[in-house]
Design brief:
heterodimer; A: 247 residues; alpha+beta; Ubiquitin-like (UB roll); 2 domains; 8 helices; B: alpha/beta; Flavocytochrome C3, Chain A, domain 1; 20% strand; globular
Chain lengths: 247, 569
């Protein structure tokens, strides 16, 4: 029987030692990494024929829109649902994202990504208790630019690939810069533009970006993150010069 | 003991919209409890759009027409007062989202663009290309952050605690630590989504769509309304069930059989591909049954052809669809037709709502919204674009309802909650240590197979009775399961075990409702009773569970304006 050879880096708890476990899963056409992990959950037996526990991982939508199933597959951070076995070299290696706190096996704690959104105030600051009218007019060009940025699924792949996103820096991550831009481009959202600039000027802000361009290359949604980074670097510099003179 | 004024269970669109509304009272402590991180919720997978009669697509559109279309779409099983309320409140709800920053696609005048959708008499569906749900979900999450809503992420609802018809609080597990907590609360919104996973892999639903909140409501005696109405989406990818949005048909896609014929001309000569979902799904299955599909048996399919739309339109309007076809089916819709087959998509039925303006249930303090609930506005069949509108409109009113309710009610019994939590702690320990027993996954697969073959798109008495017997048998087997993981930390095997238990209860209710409903209406299509029977069945199915007894009853449909007529498209 044709099988797929998978090596998974496992760890029982944040304090435990990591170890590798290998599996042989029967081959079928169109298998993806999630279907491999589901097979292992159904028959939790490793390549040595020993009984083991199901592998813990996160996954939900299966159509690359929820951002849950990020992991490192054959050395590259990406979504597991769109990683087709037929296009991967074997043995396939699966590892957790290592820029985040490990919880168990392939599952990590990505709360930091959302804390970053809070820092850049990635929202429109209104409370909805007013007369609404027909809503703001927005040009198709601006809408398209915003749509592109809004495809971000906070999956963490850009942060995982970024050399400047690590324990030693406090960089908020490329995704958060994209989201700051998304709300700066909204007719009501731009009222908070300056607060976002201030957040981006702070420690861990946009100046931590070393321009490696890894984020834009790794983003599963091909969001033009470096464009937002460049635009906001420019705007933030201008804002800081301007604020020197208006103090 | 944890203590909140308002608990929202479920971090999808309905839950977060409710949280947003409830948190507008700064004196209330509001928390969202969600088993997945909120932005990973299934709302994010909604592609095509959200309906509201804004009149930007066609200035003659009106909330009255939205009301009428929805009544007709429901095959007259929707409650008309609730539908009218829904259609009238939808426009404001959309404008609100626009102001909150949802990047709705625009027309040339800079207004929100609206496109045609199945079953709608006017272009009424607002969208953000084909990521409408995703952008709404993220916007709502960020608004909740802004409002300081608390989140208990990766927490799993185990039980709603009720005494004398009064909500006391709930029991939930922090999945990361494996700790089980009792939470005291004054009111709760159940917004845990549908339970399409009763068909396991024959569904477009995400893995987490296991109806946990619906099952917990069912367990405390709240009726499950109209569970037999299951929507099969006509266009799931043939091999994986991944959804190809209704926008494909809305933008002008063709459905072709193996003779290259646009077969919808036989079933809906006027609307063609834009007929409602139940009709299109049955048409596809009929083509396959009569030998005009491609492939064989379970692998049969028909084609969705977008090629004539041209590269520009596909890239602009349906980029996500194109990407999915490339990634999951290895073909490009610009040059190739897409193999598709109907998949379970949506549950019209759910937790019985007794007052739609507050989304309350018969139990004081428990409210529900979204796919988990049955208001009922969708009746026998939901129209495309009405589910996002449902969660936004009724999420908001559930939030208002629960906010007012929290002001009138006190906190529940601590003792009663502690007792319930202790029972769950024992159960978790016992399951972690159990080494022998039935495999949960084998039971799940058998359930899915039974539901697909015996309670799928076409239904017949004898097959359904066999299906119900099998589900009963699986419920017995489930009593003796093992989970195969002794860990306390992130024990997904235990969570799956509880989820499958929830699905089994709901599957049984689907079977009971379907067997008793001897007619064909909306998505419920019977080979042995092919006509709608208003004389006997213009009424809601109500199934209640008391311990292990399931009882079936009916409730009249509220008709205010539109008398039932034949549904023709």
């Amino acid at each position: 029987m044709k099988t797929v050879h998978v090596k998974i880096k496992r760890q029982n708890s944040p304090q435990a030692q990591p170890y590798w476990e290998e599996f042989k899963v029967p081959y079928k056409p169109n298998l993806n990494i999630i279907s491999l992990l589901m097979y292992i959950a159904k028959k939790p037996v490793n390549a040595k024929g020993e009984k083991t526990t199901p592998v813990v991982y996160e996954s939900n939508c299966l159509e690359e829109v929820c951002g849950a199933c990020s992991m490192v597959i054959n050395g590259k951070a990406r979504q597991a649902c769109t990683a087709l076995v037929d296009s991967l070299e074997q043995p396939i290696t699966l590892e957790p994202l290592d820029k985040f706190k490990l919880v168990r096996d392939l599952l990590v704690d990505r709360t930091a990504l959302f804390d970053a959104l809070r820092k850049v105030k990635a929202w429109v600051d209104i409370d909805g208790t007013f007369n609404l009218g027909p809503g703001p007019k927005i040009s198709q060009e601006i809408q398209e630019k915003r749509y592109n940025l809004s495809r971000c699924m906070t999956c963490g792949v850009c942060a995982q690939s970024c050399p400047n996103y690590n324990d030693k820096t406090t960089f908020i991550g490329p995704h958060a810069v994209g989201q700051a831009n998304l709300f700066n481009l909204h007719p009501v959202g731009q009222n908070k533009k300056e607060a976002r600039y201030k957040a981006l000027m702070d420690k861990g802000g946009i100046m931590e970006c070393g321009n490696s361009q890894n984020c834009v290359r790794s983003c599963p949604k091909e969001i033009p993150l470096t464009e937002s980074l460049a635009e906001l670097k420019g705007q933030v510099s201008w804002y800081s010069i301007k604020s020197l003179f208006t103090k | 003991m944890l203590k909140y004024d308002v608990v929202i269970v479920g971090g999808g669109g309905a839950g977060m919209r409710a949280a947003l509304e409830a948190s507008r009272d700064p004196n209330l402590k509001v928390v969202v409890l969600s088993k997945t991180f909120p932005t990973r919720s299934h709302t994010g997978a909604a592609q095509g759009g959200i309906n509201a009669a804004l009149g930007f697509g066609n200035s003659n559109d009106s909330t009255e027409l939205h009301f009428r279309d929805t009544v007709k779409g429901s095959d007259f099983l929707g409650d008309q007062d609730a539908i009218e309320f829904f259609a009238s409140n939808a426009p404001e709800a959309i404008i609100e989202l626009d102001k909150l920053g949802v990047p709705f696609s625009r027309n040339e005048q800079g207004r929100i663009a609206q496109r045609p959708f199945g079953g709608a008499s006017s272009p009424r569906t607002c969208y953000s290309a084909d990521k409408t749900g995703h952008v709404i979900l993220h916007t709502l999450y960020e608004q909740c952050l802004k409002n300081g809503v608390d989140f208990l992420n990766e927490w799993f609802l185990l039980e709603l605690v009720v005494e004398d018809n009064q909500f006391q609080g709930l029991i939930a597990m922090d999945i990361r630590s494996g700790e089980i907590h009792a939470i005291q609360a004054k009111s709760v919104v159940i917004a845990t989504g549908g339970f399409g996973r009763i068909y396991w892999n024959r569904t477009t639903n995400a893995f987490n769509m296991t109806g946990d909140g619906t099952a917990c409501c069912f367990d405390v005696g709240i009726p499950l309304k109209d569970p037999e109405f299951v929507q099969f989406h006509p266009t799931g990818l043939a091999s994986t069930g991944v959804l190809m949005s209704e926008a494909c048909r809305g933008e002008g896609g063709y459905l072709l059989n193996k003779d290259g014929e646009r077969f919808m001309s036989r079933y809906a000569p006027e609307k063609m591909e834009l007929g409602p979902r139940d009709l299109v799904s049955r048409s596809i299955e009929t083509e396959i049954k009569e030998g005009r599909g491609f492939g064989q048996g379970i692998n049969s399919y028909v084609q969705l052809d977008l090629r004539h739309l041209g590269e520009k339109k596909i890239m602009e309007r349906l980029p996500q669809i194109r990407q999915l076809a490339i990634e999951f089916e290895s073909l490009d819709p610009i040059t190739d037709p897409i193999p598709i087959r109907p998949s379970c998509h949506y549950m019209m039925g759910g937790v019985h709502i007794s007052d739609f303006a507050t989304c309350s249930t018969p139990i004081e303090g428990i409210h529900a919204a979204g796919e988990a609930a049955c208001v009922s506005i969708h009746g026998g069949n939901r129209l495309g674009g009405n589910s996002l509108a449902d969660i936004i409109v009724f999420g908001k009113f559930a939030g208002l309802g629960v906010r007012e309710k929290a002001k009138d009610r006190g906190f529940g019994s601590k003792e009663r909650l502690e007792k319930a939590a202790a029972k769950w702690i024992d159960k978790f320990d016992a399951m972690r240590n159990k080494t022998e027993g039935q495999s949960v996954i084998a039971i799940r697969d058998k359930m899915a197979e039974t539901m697909w073959y015996n309670l799928g798109i076409f239904r017949k008495e004898d097959e359904m009775i066999k299906g119900l017997e099998m589900i009963n048998h699986l419920i017995e087997q489930y009593e003796d399961c093992k989970i195969g993981d002794a860990s306390k930390i992130y024990n997904t095997a235990f969570i799956n075990y509880i989820e499958i238990g929830n699905l089994l209860k709901l599957a049984k209710a689907v079977a009971m409702g379907a067997i008793a409903r001897k007619e064909s209406r909306g998505s419920h299509s019977r080979a042995d009773y092919t006509q709608r029977d208003d004389k006997n069945f213009l009424k809601h199915t109500m199934i209640t569970k008391q311990d292990n007894e399931y009882k079936l009853d009916y409730l009249p449909v509220r008709i205010t304006k539109y008398q039932p007529e034949e549904r023709r498209y």
